[in-house]
Amino acid sequence: MAGESTRQAPAHVVILGLGPSVEAYMDRVKRLGGAHALADEIWAVNALGDVFTCDRIFHMDDVRIQEIRAAAAPDGNIAAMLSWMRKHPGPIYTSRAHEDYPGTIDFPLEAVINSIGFSYFNSTVAYAVAYAIHLGVREISLFGVDYTYANYHHAEKGRACVEFLLGIAAARGIQIALPDSTSLMDACAPKLYGYDTLDVEIDNVDGRARVVFTPHDRLPTAAEIEAEYDHSRHPSPLVKEPASAAPLPEMFGGMPTRANEALYRLLTDYPEVSYILDVGSGDGRHAQIMRDHGRGVVTVSMSPPADHIGDFLDLPDQDKHFEAIWASHVLEHCPDPGAFLRKCHDLLPEGGILAVTVPPAKHEVVGGHVTIWNAGLLLYQMVLAGFDCREARVSGLYADGPGLAPYNISVIVRKRSAELPQLKCDTGDIELLAHLFPVPVTHGFDGRLNPINWH
User: Fold this and answer.
1) Matching CATH topology for 12-60+107-186 and 250-436?
2) How open is the CA angle 4-12-5, to the nearest 5 degrees?
3) Is residue 387 helix, strand or coil?
4) From the CB of residue 436, how many other CB atoms can be counted at a distance below 10 Å?
């Protein structure tokens, strides 16, 4: 299934999430004698597609990324979910359909954005609600859409996005129904995000709360929204479109992390990159920035938190679906950097992006740092791993921010596989490989290179 389903749009849909208020759905179906006595169609999110009989399933994570996570925990929930997804006839709306999952169908993202005039969906439920608005349904009932999980910050972002979309739905005359037991909307009722032009009434009808939005004639201006919205009264943050996020240089100005400039280059200069493997992800700060700017990310680290915990070299080989590999301050910890870079070469498709940052060579010996680097040595190792570096971008030495000492050397290269000549691992090899470097090099060249193709 590669394209959008052509079935007739339902009038009333139920969207099922994983929260505790899904029990209200089960009670209601039992009383009515069947799911379709409640609504025309039942839509389920992620693993619930295998729990309930439903008409459409939404699973927005690319299954190729989920396969990486499943390989790290073969007895876990993700592996079990992928198992039934391979057999399910669908439709399963997802970010990318795959033939070995015959029920998957490409989510019509562009059509949905053009239809509803909004382009930021940060949870699978948000995609489902947006799709319902796009289809022009008359009523949306939500069960289990509670956002009560432990990661409060992540939960509140998800909640705010869904509530914002429900406001769009209500403004179009779509009725919204919620069970009494849900926590959705409780932070913002009776005013939605401080909009005094949208009144909310909650009526208890047959054991569930029917939320009725009454839009006024005039929508609020941006200045009025800014003046009315008060985080102290409404703890759910107003989710904005990615375009309104702080520019990356400003965002990075106060970030206590490394390789800010290289990450900025990766996210701004390669907009086609949507799936990134973050190797040596540490506490996940870089991965979070990537996700905040719309990228799918899989993290690998020797210690939690990470999607794959263990040695990068042991990462199971999968289809070449990562469009970029990010390795910031990792290579200096590798006893065999050549093996590391060859693994990167194996995982990337032709045209994929490798972005590596290392610290400059220093005389002090510190725990964990077992190799020393300059830009020339990094390029040399990349060439030996099979990368044609003629168009590589080299940062030169740079600092993380104003007033800080320079501590980063970055190289970004688009994978073009190089066929290496017979080498001697001795004098003369540089000349044999010189055609694969971005600048003229000879035996004994100074590896402390100035920026190349960087700005």
Assistant:
1) yes
2) 10
3) strand
4) 23
Best CA proximity match to 321, nearest among 112, 59, 90, 95: 95
Task: Identify the CATH class of 12-60+107-186.
Answer: alpha beta
Cα–Cα distance for residue pair 281/265, rounded to 1 Å:
18
- Sequence ranges of the domains in the chain: 12-60+107-186, 250-436
Which class for 267: exposed (0-12), middle (13-18), buried (19 or more C-beta within 10 A)? buried
Residues 6+ apart with CB under 8 A from 98: 63, 64, 104
| Cα separation, 116 vs 140, whole angstroms | 15
Q: Distance between CA atoms of 240 and 345, rounded to whole angstroms?
A: 37
d(CA 214, CA 236): 21
Q: Which helix (H) or strand (E) holds 109?
A: helix 109-116
Under-50 pLDDT residues of the chain: 2, 187-200, 202, 208-220, 225-226, 228-248, 256
Q: How does pLDDT run across 129-166, given as a tens digit for each residue?
A: 999 999 999 999 999 888 766 555 566 677 888 888 98
Tokens 């509140």 appear where? 156
CA 321/CA 318 separation, integer angstroms:
8
**CB neighbourhood size of 110 (10 A):** 9
Q: Do 325 and 344 meet the contact criterion of CB atoms below 8 Å apart? A: yes
Task: Give start and end residues of each alpha helix (H) in 270-353.
Answer: 285-292, 337-347
Phi, psi for residue 78 in degrees, rounded to 5 = -65, -45
- 93-107 confidence digits (pLDDT tens): 999 999 999 999 999
Distances (CA, A) of 133 to 11, 107, 175, 220, 359: 11, 14, 11, 21, 50
Per CATH, the homologous superfamily of domain 250-436 is: Vaccinia Virus protein VP39 (3.40.50.150)
Tell me the pTM.
0.51
Report CA Rg, the chain. 26
Task: Give the pLDDT of residue 234.
Answer: 35
pLDDT at 357: 95
Task: List, in order, residues 6 or more apart from 3 with CB less than 8 Å away.
Answer: 105, 106
